[in-house]
Design goal:
Layout lengths: L4 H24 L1 H37 L3 H7 L3 H45 L13 H4 L1 H41 L10 H11 L2 H18 L1 E4 L2 E4 H23 L6 H16 L4 H16 L17 H12 L6 H18 L9 H11 L1 H10 L5 H22 L3 H20 L5 H19 L5 H14 L9 H12 L2
Antiparallel strand pairs: 1-2
């Protein structure tokens, strides 16, 4: 923290407030000074409540005029999220200015009301012009001293209220600078705003200003610097701090995204914290709504995103991952949080399960690996949380069926066992489809038990989830209802899946 000309201005405001309030405290005595202090606190509370509401009416006109400036158009560009962000920050800035104006106005009105009340009391009881006890108590004997102390406290409170908008705005600006520096240490170099950035860093570290800001002014600024986003109240200072934490967590997992071999428990934990950051966002997620579709499309086109290449996945897994990217490419403000969190957690499962290490063609090893890590179950559970990812869930199921089909085809060299397996599956499907088991889900559950039993007899170990997907696919592919399902029909379905 430093002392600058800015410090002199802050101290001058405090000095003026202190002289006025201490003089009034000595002149009026303790009880009247206490009422003055309470009126200042009440003015702050009323201003915090009124200024955001008033800013909603005023900001529309101000923002309308801002929108027609070249600076606004160059800043927003083609990103609709920037428009929402700029409007929200402008509304918050207007709210903080109104906070000071409303505070001064409300305090003036309260002072008039208190003065009128005292005058009425004085008329009703002229013997007590100070409206205080005359019993020789400690308060009466030390009324002047206590009044001066109360006046000094009132001066501190008033100074906090008057300087909090400036210090709070500097605090937000410093947070934005820290976010940029956390994302890229060289981001502000040769940006053309180096002088302004140095000034923000200098003045936001001002010692006198921070004394008033950190011990009360910050709370006032936080409460008054609010914006309305999609009908929800957003505290700008909290949002900036949350966004800074988001960037820090992203930086922690960035090396792992570039090189999956650098996966660690600490970085996986950072993914979960990043998910929590995104879920808590009330304003900054609008940025993700613009950049996530761009990034998803870039990966689909084989381009890099933030110097990160698209993960190289097994040829069976890639279709499901591509489908998830296609869903992310359609992200908007309604689903940005859900899609971002799902993408992060799915990638976390991929990294921790070791799916990235599975080589193309080693289907037997893949089956064993999926069963050992329970990866399919974890992926499906995560995808099921997001209604926008149902197509991805189906892709994961189809992937599991293709893996199983390829392994079954390998077993077809043992004609006797394979024919017996196909015969049993045909019989089981006929039984399930011809009997009234209720819902499709109940039919799948019954057939899954048969699938697990017969694949085990064939010497193929199948995870429960994979068997469930395979059973569901077989029920969809087989059209026979009144007739027996033929062996050739089952063989054809398995062969078709194995070729996909």
């Amino acid at each position: 923290m430093t002392i600058t000309l800015f410090s002199v201005a802050i101290l001058a405001i405090f000095a003026v407030c202190a002289v006025i309030e201490i003089y009034r405290g000595a002149r009026r005595g303790f009880l009247k000074s206490l009422v003055t202090l309470c009126s200042a606190v009440a003015s702050i509370i009323l201003s915090v409540c009124l200024s955001p509401a008033l800013s909603y009416f005023i900001s529309d006109t101000v923002i309308y005029n801002i929108k027609h400036t070249p600076f606004y158009r160059s800043l927003v560009g083609s990103f609709s999220s920037m428009e929402i962000l700029v409007e929200a920050l402008a509304g918050a800035a207007i709210s903080t200015v109104l906070f000071v104006l409303v505070f001064c106005l409300v305090r003036f009105v309260i002072a008039i009301v208190v003065h009128l009340v005292y005058r009425s009391k004085l008329k009703s009881d002229p013997s007590k012009p100070q409206y205080m006890a005359r019993d020789g108590s400690f308060i009466e004997r030390n009324s002047v001293r206590l009044g001066m102390i109360t006046g000094a406290v009132c001066a501190v409170v008033v100074t906090m209220a008057l300087t909090s908008p400036v210090m709070g705005t500097l605090d937000v600006a410093r947070s934005v600078i820290k976010i940029g520096e956390t994302a890229d240490a060289k981001i502000w170099q040769s940006s053309g705003v180096e002088t302004e950035i140095d000034a923000v860093k200098k003045y936001s570290a001002d010692l006198p200003g921070n004394l008033f800001y950190r011990f009360g002014g910050k709370l006032m600024y936080r409460a008054s610097a609010t914006a309305s986003v999609e009908g929800e109240r957003v505290y700008v200072l909290d949002e900036m701090e949350l966004f800074h934490d988001t960037v820090k967590n992203f930086n922690q997992i960035y090396p792992m995204l570039k090189d999956p071999s650098k996966v660690s428990e600490k970085r996986i934990d950072a993914i979960e914290r990043l998910c929590e950051n995104v879920e808590d966002m009330k304003l900054c997620h609008v940025l993700i709504a613009d950049f996530l579709p761009v990034g998803a499309n870039a990966w689909l086109e084989g381009k890099r995103v933030f110097k990160i290449s698209k993960p190289v996945l097994n040829e069976l897994i890639m279709p499901a991952f591509d489908e998830m990217l296609r869903v992310c490419a359609r992200t908007d403000l309604d689903n940005v949080k859900q899609n971002t969190v799902t993408l992060l957690r799915v990638y976390s499962i991929i990294l921790t399960s070791g799916i990235l290490d599975m080589e193309n063609g080693s289907y037997s090893e893949m089956i064993k690996h999926l069963e050992k890590t329970n990866a399919i179950s974890l992926l499906c559970a995560e995808l099921n949380k997001n209604p926008y990812m149902q197509s991805v869930n189906r892709s994961v199921g189809e992937m599991a069926v293709r893996v199983l089909a390829k392994e079954l085809v390998k077993k077809s060299t043992d004609d006797l066992k394979y024919d017996n397996f196909v015969k049993n599956m045909a019989s089981a499907i006929t039984s399930v489809k011809s009997r009234d088991y209720g819902t499709t889900a109940e039919m799948v559950d019954v057939l899954t038990d048969y699938t697990l039993r017969y694949t085990s007899d064939l010497g193929v170990s199948v995870p429960q989830d994979v068997a469930g997907f395979a059973s569901e696919s077989l029920l969809k592919e087989v059209v026979s209802v009144d007739e027996y399902v033929t062996i050739s029909e089952i063989k054809k379905i398995i062969l078709d899946y194995s070729k996909q």
